[in-house]
Amino acid sequence: MKYRFLSLATVVGLVTMAVAAPAAHAVPGRAPSAADFAAYLNKARESTGLPGLSVVVTQGDKVVHAAGYGRDSTGAPINERTPMRVASLTKSFTAAAVMTLVEAGKIVLDRPVAEQLPGFRMADGRAGRITVRHLLNQTSGLSDTTIDIRAGQATGSLKKYVATLATGALTGEPGTRYEYCNVNFDLAARLVEVASGMSFHGYLRQRVFGPLGMAGSGLGDREVKPADGFISLFGTWVSRAEQPGFLNHGGSGGVVTTAADMGKWLISQNGAGTARIVSKEGLRTMHTPSPVHDYAMGWSEETIDGAPLLVHSGNLFTYSAVQGISPGTGYGFAVMTNGAGLQDDTYAVLEGLVALTRGDSPDVPGGGRQQFELVLGLIALVAAGLGTMAVLRSRRWAERYGRRPVWRIVLRLAPALVPVLVLAALPDLISILMNGRTVTWAQMTYFPAPLTITVVIMAAAGAAAIASRLHRLRSVRSNG
């Protein structure tokens, strides 16, 4: 499988093994019906244990299946019109908004952003060579590692957001390497505002959502507010409000939409139907990867179950989503869930939907999240037990090692210090796994919570063992 968009959920998911449930059976030689999709999705929702799913499948200019499964945090049943956060799927909407202005002659893809966006400047002179195409293809050189991401999230407007980039730098020459960075699409959203003379959310509503009939869609919580989502805590779903820094009105992750509306979006992105916001040539431009990576203006070329698709995943902290279109077969898919855990099951559900359209019998995903979080829980319990034993036996330990050289004592204490050091560096370690994406302690209390809690318990056990042993050691040495 080709590159997927890395979030902590996908990073951990890639290193865990899902337990496959019984397969859903398709009939070879026959296009799957709405009932086939419904049967598969009911099994998928049950086996994954997700709190809720909202799914749509399209082919050509028709919606084959659109439905919801499970309940939201208020207890209301989810259906195809339930608002869902779709996180980074927003990027494809932002790219479409830019392309409408490109075709109107108000934005030029291969002209420097600095020439089209007053107020955009950076400490790095190479920023003057970033083009709009570089932004949309994630090849601008912008990176979480060289920009104050937190300062940008604290701003109340895209104009102020752009101003926070003034002290930032690039990681490479624009157009030469790929690096996923939300700043690219937030800059693109501000460019839409300047070129159109409208707010970004207003432009999306009037020129993207409106023409496609997506009446249930909006940006941030301004027009459409979803119920709180869930985080998975050792296998149990806990309702929690979304991270406030990600409820912005930018172009990287703020769209809230429904399965019904996503059906209209997928049809338009496959070039079918009568409602279109860009030309077919514009779609080809949006769906063509850059020379340096398979990312293509809010989409990525991937192969799923042998079928070439354009795909984009999205993950906030209480919602997850994935979309895919097949220009060859005309199928489109969107899978959205109101939960986020250490393993993201939406992509696995998408794989099953693709398999159904090919006449295959997909394995129903599930078990990986629960299994992995169970292992973490057991590790936490063992760590707590070992820490308690170390404290209770600290006098015996001190009597045994109290007369030995200091370096031998340090070596004996070192293993207990390791989890303390891991805890201190945990956000930075997770950032490395996520290719340099910024991670904060507040974010570590959301869907990574089981991992964070386990490391905290291990660190506490290690610290207690060290403290009690040093205390007893001092007593032993002072008594001669």
From TrEMBL:
Matches recorded under InterPro entries: AmpC-like (IPR050491), Beta-lactam-related (IPR001466), Beta-lactam/transpept-like (IPR012338)
Pfam families: Beta-lactamase
UniProt keyword list: Hydrolase, Membrane, Signal, Transmembrane, Transmembrane helix
Transmembrane segments: 374-392, 413-434, 446-467
Signal peptide (residue range): 1-20
Record domain Beta-lactamase-related: where: 38-346
GO function terms (MF aspect): hydrolase activity
The protein's name in its UniProt record: Serine hydrolase
